[in-house]
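User: I'll paste a sequence; please echo it back and then give the predicted structure.

Assistant: Echoing your sequence first, then the prediction.
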Amino acid sequence: MQARHLPTINPRYWTGIALASIFGTNMGDFYAHEAGLGLLGGLPILIGLFLLVFIAERFDKLTHEAYYWLCIIIMRTGATNIADYMAGRHGMHIDRLVLSLSFGAAIAVLALWAYSAARAKNEHLTPKSMPDTDARYWVTMLLAGIFGTVLGDYFEKTIGENLAALVLPLVLAGALLLYRQKVMSVILGYWLVVGVARTAGTAIGDWFADNKAVGLPLSTLCSGLVFVGVLVLWRTGKRQDDPALAV
């Protein structure tokens, strides 16, 4: 994506990623079940939408983040459905822990590949730097969405929905602290936080959707409104990577 369409990595960005994870969890379930498309039936539509957004982004010279966040939500929605099909009893019914370890390993390999590529180009990334949003980035983002959905469901079934929705956000806070302190490389830390955010978002989204006082349709609507509202109302001034571009 063009730099003018990318958000700055800051508290607003990570809040957006966390809220996108919750909204995408609800949206994936609503899209598959309430809309009657099934877990796989709606994937071609999502792929088409993603490609349309990606193509349109190449020709837009205005400065905004809409394309990036649209791609994030579309991909998170699809990742939820893919994960549910692979792990669910009406799909492939693969063990969730096995799936989590497999996708976690794949994300680690792609993150190490991106890290090696950045070192080869002598790039000095900081916790405020966005990784290159190339094809590798979006594949890793998709895998992180699948990983987070499966692992979030695993924790819900092992320790319970209530405890998972309470504990996983604390794990996310810890991952963010490690990222900010640069305990590991910036790229590896970035994907660690994204993976944990997807996991926590799954637990929180499912907790709201399964609450009888809320339900899936209302949970989807509210999480979507909060996600959009935060991004629209939370302004951070100038982009830190390019002062000429407004956020």
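Residues 116 and 169 are 30 Å apart (CA to CA). The chain has eight helices and no strands.
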